[in-house]
Specification:
Layout (H helix, E strand, L loop, with lengths): L1 E10 L2 E11 L4 E5 L6 H8 L7 E6 L2 E4 L5 H10 E4 L11 H11 L5 H14 L15 H14 L4 E5 L7 H16 L4 E4 L3 H7 L2 E6 L2 E6 L1 H6 L4 H9 L11
Parallel strand pairs: 3-8, 3-9, 6-7, 7-8
Antiparallel strand pairs: 1-2, 1-4, 4-5, 9-10
Bound molecules: adenosine-5'-triphosphate and magnesium ion (MG).
The site of magnesium ion has 3 residues, from α1.
């Protein structure tokens, strides 16, 4: 179980996260939606301590970290329990797909090279890249690069996967293959938080949707509840403005 309590983050005078409380069950796929600047990325970055929140606790499977008095070891433990997939893939340019996936296993998990290679190959095969293991990022399409990034995240066997708009940097025709990979990851029972503007995908894959607005979670329910019967006027406005009705229907 994942428990976030009283998480707050301010940039200068801009309160981006305002005492966020959030409990997530194992296997949950939680989608975070909300307008630009609402704090969605900041929330993910504060959860894995890429960004330092000014107060709050983050507990992953009983491992509790108080952000104000975290130790170096707690930071390492928490990082090992989470893995993040970014909008811009963030692969190492000078490493092959295989080396990219192996990196964390060798450097962070201290696995032997042959063991890391075995896991990396398995994960790359799972995301449909068996033939591309020796390719460098620039030899891969955006969709393939993002699937390497997903394989890299999965290889670490994290307790929580964080996706920050994983398809928004992709050409439209490449979005589907990445969404398929994320869907397969969800079906395997991984616990994940997904920031996405692919509303049709969110509807089908998430079992819980949060609407973040002005640093607070102002809507929290099943996709059906949030999309069909939003409680807050801000959510209603947001949903009526976004063009998800014209977004191509995501087929599963
Ligand atoms: N490193 C930073 N320094 C200062 N302000 C920041 C920083 N990172 C984010 N912010 C501010 O925090 C607010 C929330 O940003 P965040 O990136 O979390 O929003 P978001 O919901 O992910 O938006 P988007 O949908 O555009 O990605 C914004 O006002 C942003 O300008
Ligand atoms: Mg963002």
């Amino acid at each position: 179980m994942i428990e976030i309590k009283n998480l707050s983050k301010t940039f200068k005078k801009n309160k981006v996260l305002d005492h966020i409380d959030l409990t997530i069950k194992k296997g949950d796929v939680v989608a975070v939606i909300g307008p630009s600047g609402a704090g969605k990325s900041t929330l993910l970055r504060c959860i894995n301590l890429l960004e330092e929140a000014e107060e709050g606790t983050i507990t992953i499977d009983g491992l509790r970290v108080d952000v104000k008095k975290k130790t170096k070891q707690e930071l390492i433990n928490l990082r090992q329990n989470t893995a993040m997939v970014f909008q811009q893939f963030n692969l190492f340019r000078r490493k092959t797909a295989l080396e990219n996936v192996m990196e964390g296993l060798v450097v962070v998990k201290k696995l032997a090279k042959n063991e890391a290679e075995e896991i990396a190959k398995f994960q790359l095969e799972k995301v449909g890249l068996a033939k591309q293991i020796d390719s460098y990022p620039k030899q891969l399409s955006g969709g393939q690069q993002q699937r390497v990034a997903i394989a890299r995240a999965l290889a670490m066997n994290p307790k929580l996967l964080l996706f920050d708009e994983p398809t928004s940097a992709l050409d439209p025709e490449l979005v589907g293959e990445v969404l398929d990979t994320i869907k397969a990851t969800a079906l395997e029972g991984n616990t994940m938080i997904l920031v996405s503007h692919e509303m049709n995908f969110v509807k089908k894959v998430a079992n819980r949707v949060l609407f973040l607005y002005n640093g607070k979670i102002i809507e929290d329910g099943t996709p059906k509840e949030v999309f069909e019967n939003p409680q807050n006027t801000r959510t209603k406005e947001f949903l009526s403005k976004i063009a998800y009705s014209t977004e191509p229907e995501y087929q599963i």
